[in-house]
Predict the structure.
Amino acid sequence: MAFYQLITTQKIPTTIDEIWDFVSSPANLKDITPEHMGFVVTGNTGIGKMYPGMIITYKVSPLLGIKLNWVTEITHVRDKEYFVDEQRIGPYAMWHHEHKIEAIVGGVLMTDIITYQPPFGVIGAIANALFIKKQLKEIFDYRKLALEKKYGAYSQ
């Protein structure tokens, strides 16, 4: 079974403190997810600090408006540097998402590294080629626009 990876980067004209406060709160995920995904955090909305072992539950409609439960665990956190969420229950056979931030001149460089495996073996590989990879890219393109709208365009 194949694994796939999507790596995105974005330069944001803000501070480490500001972006960390935003991206490390599950309550803000809805603001950077396309509306058509029907994304709703249903448990552990991020009141308090993120920590390893934190379980977050969601409802999401990745395909044909079908609502799915998605459960992720925050497995690693290094304050104001990175955190990792891993799927425990959800639409993928495997999902590992590393969120990294680092200070750069004029702001912050944010890097997302998503390693995933679609379900259903060969059928999942075909689905990835046909639409999963494209849909993931569209989600992260939307996030870039949403963060640019919130923080402005990086101009260094």
In short: The chain has a mean pLDDT of 92. The CA atoms of residues 12 and 150 lie 10 Å apart. Residues 4-151 form a domain with the Alpha-D-Glucose-1,6-Bisphosphate; Chain A, domain 4 fold (CATH 3.30.530.20). The radius of gyration is 15 Å.
